[in-house]
Write a structure and sequence with these properties.
mainly alpha; 6 helices
Length: 127
């Protein structure tokens, strides 16, 4: 049953990412220099890798929530938000700073990490 909870949380995080990047597609493509043709040529691999990564994130967040006794929806949301904002996003920002990536890309991708973790934390505590 807990695997199903993790799976649903990963799906919710993936859906959040789809909505996030669809809404920010134009500035994201401008910041990355990515073209529609290049994105099509990548095929399904980025989506598969992303979903597998989200399964890992949701699984570890569930483990941490169990150890910390986080079971309430509000606490799950705040804990997920905190993990995204204070762990995932700074790591992304550090990598992007050293690789001289555009600031707007840092903001877009850190926003996704923060929001995605919040959504996963929320979903993990709904069930």
């Amino acid at each position: 049953m807990e695997f199903l909870n993790v799976l649903i949380a990963a799906i919710a995080g993936f859906a959040f990412g789809a909505a996030w990047y669809m809404g920010l597609a134009r500035p994201w493509k401008a910041a990355t220099g990515m073209t529609d043709e290049a994105m099509r040529s990548a095929g399904a691999a980025p989506y598969i890798i992303s979903f597998i990564a989200l399964l890992f994130v949701a699984g570890m967040m569930r483990h941490m929530f169990v150890l910390a006794g986080i079971h309430e929806v509000g606490k799950g949301l705040v804990a997920g938000l905190g993990l995204g904002l204070f762990i995932a996003a700074p790591w992304i920002a550090t990598n992007y700073a050293y690789s001289m990536r555009p600031r707007v890309l840092t903001l877009i991708d850190c926003g996704y990490a923060t929001g995605g973790c919040a959504v996963i934390g929320l979903v993990l505590t709904i069930f």
